[in-house]
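[Discussion] Sanity-checking designs against the backbone

I'm trying to build intuition for which residues belong where. Below is a structure token string of 413 positions. I'd appreciate it if someone posts a full sequence so I can compare it with mine line by line.
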């Protein structure tokens, strides 16, 4: 039961449960978490120093529970006035009470938001009655919470490293697109799923650390590093998936490495009734379906034309796939056979099929390929460059990124 003991501006504190921290936990934190003072300064200068990533971890009209097991301090982001400083706290933030942005810092412990714990610090902003909770972390801390959400920690080191570099590249690409938002990325599939400290795993974190600063670049810019679970035998060109796109470094390649994926091939049935139901969720006025035609390129569906009682509708293959709930139509690469109720599909792979095939990366790694060769196989004509990670920062501080320009060093040279 909630028992507020003291009013903090914009929040109420309830007694925290004392949970002992094990020595290993403390060691990991002290080894990886930068000075909070430094981090705070960086957060104030966000938008200039891009070694830090601002990740939206909650966006809600509901109250938000923020907790820390060690010392926690809550202060005003602008004036630095301290609202609270104490041990082992749980604080509820209510949207109507967060009048100006606040920062929550914790020493010797992560900061947890509604039960999920994060490194770095938290900012809470009230925008039009919604609380935006933004986690400010270093790029590698961010990636430590991303990579285990994308690949299995039991995979080969080189496959995990390939994923770490792809995820870092993907993040930098988006950081360079966003200019004035209060956050850079959100924690969902809109960008990359980020589970914070709670998701971390020793093996995936090691891969992040070993590739620190490395990204995939084309013409000295981070590529848009698309990746997907399983291509099913060949990846595809982005122009067959997203209209108008044609990145030089993305082209379909044969992939015989993802055969061990549980999604390598699949079978599914869809009734016409179901299809109409899902179409109607996005397109109003779809009547009973009377005809279907598919356009293909190299086996993948590029467009679907649905003829129905009220007219005709054409969607891209990828839009068609995404109309259905997760995993129902795993990819655009399928053969369809007409049945009495609808269609029987036999398909290949899971995901959009563009860029790095994650199960393929694992297959290549098991056959002895290194992570740079894996990346160069799926992204054509790229270089792996170092833009100044933890290792590079120590040696070449002047070569780290400044503003939105990137100074390049090639770890392969
Ligand atoms: Zn593949």
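Best answer:
Here's mine. Compare freely.
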């Amino acid at each position: 039961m909630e028992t507020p003991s003291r009013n903090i501006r914009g929040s109420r504190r309830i007694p925290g449960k004392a949970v002992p921290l094990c020595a290993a936990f403390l060691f990991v934190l002290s080894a990886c978490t930068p000075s909070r003072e430094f981090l705070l300064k960086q957060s104030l200068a966000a938008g200039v120093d891009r070694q830090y990533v601002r990740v939206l971890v909650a966006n809600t009209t509901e109250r938000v529970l923020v907790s820390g097991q060690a010392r926690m301090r809550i202060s005003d982001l602008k004036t630095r006035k301290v609202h609270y400083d104490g041990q082992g706290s749980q604080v509820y933030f209510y949207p109507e009470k967060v009048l100006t942005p606040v920062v929550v810092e914790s020493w010797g412990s992560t900061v947890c938001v509604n039960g999920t714990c994060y490194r770095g610090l938290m900012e809470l902003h009230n925008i039009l009655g919604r609380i935006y909770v933004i986690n400010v972390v270093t790029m590698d801390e961010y990636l430590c919470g991303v990579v285990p959400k994308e690949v299995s920690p039991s995979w080969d080191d080189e496959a995990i490293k390939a994923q770490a570099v792809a995820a870092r590249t993907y993040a930098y690409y988006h950081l360079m697109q966003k200019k004035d938002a209060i956050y850079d990325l959100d924690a969902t599939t809109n960008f990359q799923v980020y589970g914070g400290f709670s998701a971390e795993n020793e093996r995936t974190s090691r891969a992040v650390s070993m590739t620190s600063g490395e990204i995939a670049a084309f013409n000295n810019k981070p590529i848009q590093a698309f990746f997907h679970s399983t291509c099913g035998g060949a990846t595809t060109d982005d122009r067959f998936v997203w209209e108008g796109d044609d990145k030089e470094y993305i082209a379909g390649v044969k992939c015989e490495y993802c055969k061990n994926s549980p999604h390598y091939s699949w079978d599914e049935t869809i009734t016409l009734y179901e299809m109409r139901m899902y179409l109607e969720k996005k397109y109003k006025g779809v009547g009973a379906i009377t005809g279907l035609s598919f356009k293909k390129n190299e086996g993948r569906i590029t467009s679907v034309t649905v003829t129905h009682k009220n007219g005709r509708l054409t969607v891209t293959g990828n839009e068609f796939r995404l109309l259905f709930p997760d995993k129902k139509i795993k990819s655009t690469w399928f053969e369809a056979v007409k049945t009495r109720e609808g269609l029987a599909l036999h398909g290949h792979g899971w995901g959009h099929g563009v860029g790095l095939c994650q199960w393929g990366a694992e297959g290549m790694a098991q056959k002895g390929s290194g992570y740079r060769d894996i990346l160069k196989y799926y992204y054509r004509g790229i270089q792996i460059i170092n833009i100044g990670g933890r290792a590079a920062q120590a040696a070449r501080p002047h070569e780290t990124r400044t503003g939105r320009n990137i100074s390049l060093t090639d770890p392969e040279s």
